Amino acid sequence: ENAPYGIFVTDENGQYVEANISASSITGYSRDELLRMSIKDITAAESMESAIQHFEELKKTSYMNADLRFIHKNRSVRWWSVNSVKLSDNRYLGFSIDITEKKEAEANLIYLINHDQLTGLYNRKFYEAELKRVDIQSELPLSIIVADINGLKLINDSFGDSEGDKIIKEAAKLLSSCCRQGDILFRIGGDEFNILLPKTDINSAMK
Known about the structure:
Elements: E1 6-10, E2 16-19, H1 21-27, H2 31-34, H3 39-42, H4 48-61, E3 63-71, E4 77-88, E5 91-98, H5 100-114, H6 124-134, E6 143-148, H7 152-159, H8 161-178, E7 184-189, E8 192-197, H9 202-206
Antiparallel strand pairs: 1-2, 1-5, 3-4, 4-5, 6-8, 7-8
Helix pairs in contact: 7-8
């Protein structure tokens, strides 16, 4: 009861048969509510397939570890790390801890790595990776539109970088509004933008 981890016991069908105080604290559900629930009841839709696969793995190998999305009682979708072991043919012990803040920090870091801070568009690093990803037979023909902003240096020199930044952001919005679903827009740097157009021939790219 004093463990900082949420501790659950389930039967062979994934029905909860025991839960400690921390399990209630993490999920927002009381112990009585949890004992009327199963793994499927608390798992978010986007993690359901993975949760089922991991539970089947637990039955076969007697151990499993996974990061899964779960539904808090307040209906928010959060992340937890689950480590489980097999106690017997119809009892399984799970240890859980909320890792939502860690997952959000990781997602934010990935976003910062792949996006331009000023415009929110994908950056040069991501462009180079995507160019390799789409340079395959199934994505051909592949077209690339290259664009830049005329006179940006003059604007920066005359009115300051903040005015130049406004122009860059407006250009990003304009280019975004022109892209079709499946097109990928990047700010390559400075005043330069690229658009990748998979499955697009020269005539469609010109249009």
